[in-house]
Amino acid sequence: MCTDRALIMDIQSGDKKALGMLVDKHKKTAFRIALGLVGNKDDAYDISQEACLRVYRSANTYDNSQPFMPWFYRIISNLSKTWLAKRSRRENKMVDVDDASFLLIDSTNPEDTMVKKETAAYVRNALLKLDYEDREIITLQHFRNMSYDEIADLLDIPKGTVMSRLYYARKKLATIMRSYYEQR
Amino acid sequence: MSKDKREMLAGYVDGELPENERLAFEKELSENEELRAELEEFMTLKEMTGIMSYADLPDEVWENYWQSLYKKMERGFGWILFSIGAIGLLFYGLFQFISELFYNPSVPILVKIAVTVLALGAVILLVSFSRERLFAYKHDRYKEVKK
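^ Those are the sequences you sent over. The predicted structure of the assembly is below.
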């Protein structure tokens, strides 16, 4: 199995097969990260593809001494931010809040499905109300199940910052969730 | 709450604290009601999100992912070539047109003047519209408001 760095070096010399292999390896991760950040499947798909194209176009700017994933993550994150800024300007395109295609419930038991569906809808709404940075850290920890060390490496921040960002993001998420429950 | 406690609370919820810090935090928890309330809130949140995962795409979408990406790359390259060619042709045509207009003595002077005035008008309109759009964008107090 080729490492990411080896593949990037091949891409730098114009090898499209290497790009194919790299894309195959990271396409689902790219999609899931983007989905967590923008909350819409179609757009997450487009962002993931655009991120792969950027890898191909910008392969020569990649520093081979650094790990691939944080670089790739920054590309996805920047694209997501740009997309969200565009969305806030037009805002006609709705996110998949209610059709359950953004966050799914892991349940096979029909009895508690209704309650869980309702909870999922609240969480979806609350997540989309968070600032970008808060949603990012929640997405990585809660839905990508990444360890603090992995998040720190990915975002290039100290582990202590991961912990404090998580604390504040959770506080805000809990406050939003509480207000939803109070409105019921 | 101090910074250390905030960080430790997050770490405790996610099981990321080393043994000695975990024990110290549990001791703190037993004495601090506010901290216990926050912990409970965070644990509830963790439980709620624990029953969810992000949606995936159907297998056939993943199977066609590379093909779709390759088409985009191909089309992107096609568009670049097309644009370069079109810009080249446009400039060449413009150059030929201007040369013909001003250096050909058989073109009536009235036509030369009309084309010059037309071009000047188009430039003024373009500058004016662009300036107006730019001004409107810079001074739009509601541009960040979600519609």
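Chain A has a mean pLDDT of 85. The CA atoms of residues 7 and 104 of chain A lie 33 Å apart.

Shout if you want it in another format.
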